[in-house]
Design brief:
Length: 631
């Protein structure tokens, strides 16, 4: 997966324990009573589920007015009702699109509960207060709708808490709010010693919601947990399949509907396998399942006693999935351009470091890459995909390696690219980009910066997820995602010479990708350790500085040694693959901490970036989807 912040840097991963990036609480607003502040701090310690009657807004009007102003709140607009892409659809596909949108919006409701149990009561409170004319609630609702939740990091890695007494927990909403890591580990140890192996396996599986029952924990499959909502979604998908014009797409919709009605991961596997084979369809519909947000499950590998018991019982912990929805129209021209890379995937696999020491999703030197790719004009992004938490998803490569369609059915993977997220279409946006380059990049390199090159790099990144070790990285724990995202970036960069020689890129495009990558990798703040996409950018910047491939002056201006970039990426990729093959938590921790270094020069660069861009948050507008929901 790649994320667009106003380019690539950012993520939806969060942490509440970073003193350098504190939560933005009411004390940041003027005229706040000291006693109220202290009571607020006490309530955050408890962080229990709060009834809507107890809701109290956290941000003052001054801060809300700033954060909802267009200079601070960027907007990504999905397709409009008069979009040529929509008008060109067959009538049957237009009818199907209505039902796909209705199915996708349900994922907002479901994923909000997975994210934080206070989200829905707070949303209802905001709607009630807004109807009463409460201006503070109205502005808070704008931010809530944008980030799809009560708590979120902004672009500068500050935790924004919209409601007093509610903070982001490591277990999000998929674990009890009062469950701490040490107690979590001890409960699992006790259960395993009592022979409750199956119960623990369900707790540590990616598709369950965990609750307390006495002194133990009990897991419920999310299909059972949200049975009525998933049944409604299934009905809408079945109705879409009645009118959609593509036979393969309809078969997928029926398989996906079946998986939504019964809590059986193999049903999802059959749907995933079919979805991953779709190439020539007019419409796009996806239920995304990615596990970047859960910060609790993978901590179990840090406890030696618990890790030993898990290994003895054959339990592999996998972080919880969070659910998103994507509805779109496949753009044929964009898809044709992206598909050019498919014939080069076996060549890329052949050139991966230590390729003979592990199994990849792509066969080195083979013909069948089992990889489909589509460029999509977006109608709606919901749930996990639609959360604009400092950044928003640019593209995704799914299913992930933990899914049964990959592990059991030898299925393929599919890349979906988001046109409305990546495209710069306004003069204002182009002017902002020009100012950004003037403030941060050596003028001699401006000629190589090409916004489309960011898309080329993203294509390499997404395909990079299909290369390298296919399994065995679960032992990396909380560092697994950081290292995987780092690997995908380095694959994209390290393969440039191979792909240029093979004719995928021209020498000029190669330079453009290198310079654009380096410029876009700069950030406005030091991230939290739990932000996989941003941590990997810091690691890369520090690594490339040490290798002499890039330099940031004391004034915060970036210079790029183009000749050193690809060899440096290759060197870093080799190190990353070795860490993944070892699968050891300690080695992963050392590798990440060795290179997660924020230098004074990076801080100066961040200051330069903040001078030319005030953006703190973002939102999505979906005019066509809103019209279809009325139909």
């Amino acid at each position: 997966m790649n994320i667009n912040p106003i380019k690539r840097i950012s993520t939806r991963n969060v942490s509440t324990n970073n003193p350098q990036n504190p939560a933005f609480k009411a004390e940041n607003c003027p005229d706040e009573n000291k006693l109220v502040k202290e009571l607020d701090k006490m309530s955050i310690i408890n962080n229990v589920n709060i009834n809507k009657k107890d809701c109290e807004l956290n941000l003052c009007m001054e801060e809300l007015e700033k954060r909802t102003h267009k200079d601070y709140l960027t907007t990504k607009k999905m397709l409009t009702a008069d979009a040529p892409e929509y008008l060109a659809l067959a009538d049957g596909d237009k009818e199907a699109l209505k039902h796909l949108v209705k199915a996708a919006v349900v994922l907002d409701k479901i994923n909000m509960q997975l994210d934080n149990p206070n989200n829905l009561p707070f949303k209802e409170y905001l709607e009630t207060e807004t109807a009463k004319g409460n201006e503070q609630a109205k502005l808070t609702k704008i931010l809530f709708d944008a980030q799809k939740g009560v708590c979120s990091l902004d672009r500068e890695s500050n935790m924004i808490e919209l409601m007093k007494g509610v903070s982001m927990r490591p277990g999000k909403g998929v674990y009890p709010q009062d469950l701490e890591k040490e107690e979590f580990h001890q409960i699992l140890i006790n259960m395993l010693k009592q022979g409750k192996v199956d119960e623990v396996a369900k707790i540590l599986n990616q598709r369950s919601v965990v609750e307390r029952v006495g002194n133990e924990l009990v897991a419920t499959d999310y299909v059972d947990k949200f049975k009525d909502d998933f049944a409604y979604m299934a009905s809408e998908l079945e109705r879409a399949a009645e009118t959609s014009t593509n036979k393969d797409f309809n078969e997928f919709l029926k398989l996906q509907a079946k998986a939504l009605r019964t809590a059986d991961p193999m049903l999802d596997a059959y749907a995933d396998k079919k979805w991953a084979s779709l190439q020539d369809t007019p419409l796009e519909f996806t239920i995304t399942r990615e596990n970047y947000s859960d910060e609790l499950t993978e901590t179990v590998v840090e406890n030696p006693e618990l890790k030993k018991l898990l290994d003895e019982n054959g339990i592999v912990p996998v972080a919880k999935d969070f659910l998103g929805g994507r509805v779109g129209i496949v753009n044929k021209k964009g898809t044709e351009a992206i598909l050019n890379v498919k014939k080069f995937l076996p060549l890329m696999a052949q050139n991966m470091p230590f390729k003979d020491d592990y199994i990849q999703n792509i066969t080195p030197g083979g013909q069948d890459s089992k990889q489909t790719m589509v460029d999509v004009d977006l109608v709606a992004v919901t749930g996990d995909v639609g959360e604009f938490r400092a950044g928003i998803t640019l593209a995704e490569n799914l299913p992930n390696d933990d899914k049964l369609s990959i592990k059991e059915l030898d299925g393929g993977r599919r890349n979906v690219y988001h046109r409305q997220i990546r495209l710069i279409t306004t003069d204002d946006a182009r002017e902002k980009m020009k100012k950004r380059l003037e403030a941060t990049l050596n003028p001699e390199l401006h000629k190589y910066y090409n916004d489309e090159a960011d898309h080329w790099f993203t294509v390499g990144h997404e395909n990079g997820h299909s290369l390298g070790p296919k399994s065995g990285t679960e032992g990396l724990g909380k560092y697994k995602s950081i290292i995987e995202e780092n690997k995908a970036d380095m694959v994209s960069l390290a393969m440039l010479d191979v792909l240029t020689e093979a004719g995928m890129y021209t020498p000029e495009q190669r330079k453009q990708i290198i310079v654009t990558y380096a410029a876009d990798n700069m950030m406005t703040s030091k991230p939290t350790m739990s932000q996989a996409h941003r941590v990997r950018s810091v690691m890369q910047n520090y690594y490339f500085i040490k290798e002499g491939a890039i330099e940031i002056s004391k004034d915060g201006i970036l210079n790029v040694n183009i000749d050193k970039m690809v060899p440096t990426a290759r060197k870093m990729l080799e190190e990353i693959i070795q860490v993944q093959m070892k699968g050891e938590f300690a080695k992963a921790e050392k590798y990440v901490t060795d290179y997660f270094v924020w230098t004074p020069e990076m801080e100066k660069m961040a200051e330069n970036l903040k001078k030319v861009s005030k953006t703190l948050n973002g939102k999505v507008e979906s005019p066509l989807a809103e019209e279809l929901l009325k139909a």
